[in-house]
């Protein structure tokens, strides 16, 4: 029985990769977080200007620490003294060379879905930094856009709890479609094709369950 389940999973992964490529994404499948980190660092030249989306998956790598080193110019939005300073860095980071980020869902027909509170990630992925690298575990794969949108409702409350946003979903554990100023799901993007004016979006898919 386990072999049959593994076979179905492999078929699902392979179908997703094929459709992502058909939709203009550059895709690499790796076995673990360590391989994903190594590949990402190989892709980014030393001295590059780098921005990073908030992501539980990325927090499971050592990339943040690497980007903070003197080898790169990192747009540090995670340790600013005020929210105004954070917003300033996020706006400036749209002109970085590389955006390294996660995603909330990947459909089997080759689309990326993400939800954002402030909009900096969805803006960056669509028309921001010259290069976009998306790192994701296979648990983000869903059947279609409808299932992907439902997955966003699952991820929002978890991120609200993680970031301690004062939202109804932080308490209830489910989307309340709130109108609070700390709402997690103000912006939703569906990237149907990875071709951008500056170069294709690169997806590094990890054969592990990572993030939310």
UniProtKB/TrEMBL annotation:
InterPro entries: LUD_dom (IPR003741), NagB/RpiA_transferase-like (IPR037171), UCP020269 (IPR009501). Residues 13-206 form the LUD domain. Transmembrane segments: none annotated. It comes from the Bacteria. PANTHER family: LUD DOMAIN-CONTAINING PROTEIN, LUD_DOM DOMAIN-CONTAINING PROTEIN. This is Lactate utilization protein. It comes from Fusobacterium mortiferum ATCC 9817. The lineage of its organism: Bacteria, Fusobacteriati, Fusobacteriota, Fusobacteriia, Fusobacteriales.
């Amino acid at each position: 029985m386990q072999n049959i389940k593994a076979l179905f999973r492999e078929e699902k992964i392979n179908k997703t990769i094929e459709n992502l490529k058909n939709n203009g994404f550059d895709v690499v499948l790796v076995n673990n977080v360590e391989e994903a980190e190594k590949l990402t660092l190989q892709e980014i030249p030393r001295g590059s200007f780098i921005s990073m989306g908030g992501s539980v998956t990325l927090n499971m790598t050592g990339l943040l620490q690497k980007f903070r080193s003197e080898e790169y110019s990192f747009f540090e939005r995670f340790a600013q003294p005020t929210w105004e300073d954070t917003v300033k860095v996020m706006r400036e980071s749209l002109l970085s060379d590389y955006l390294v980020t996660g995603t909330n869902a990947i459909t089997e027909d080759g689309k990326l879905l993400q939800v954002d509170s402030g909009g900096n990630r969805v803006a960056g992925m669509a028309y921001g930094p010259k290069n976009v690298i998306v790192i994701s575990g296979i648990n983000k794969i869903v059947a279609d856009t409808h299932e992907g949108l439902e997955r966003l409702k699952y991820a929002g409350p978890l991120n609200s709890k993680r970031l301690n946003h004062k939202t109804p979903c932080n308490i209830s554990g489910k989307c309340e479609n709130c109108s609070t100023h700390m709402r997690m799901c103000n912006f939703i993007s569906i990237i149907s094709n990875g071709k951008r004016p500056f170069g294709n979006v690169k997806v590094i898919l990890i054969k592990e369950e990572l993030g939310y």
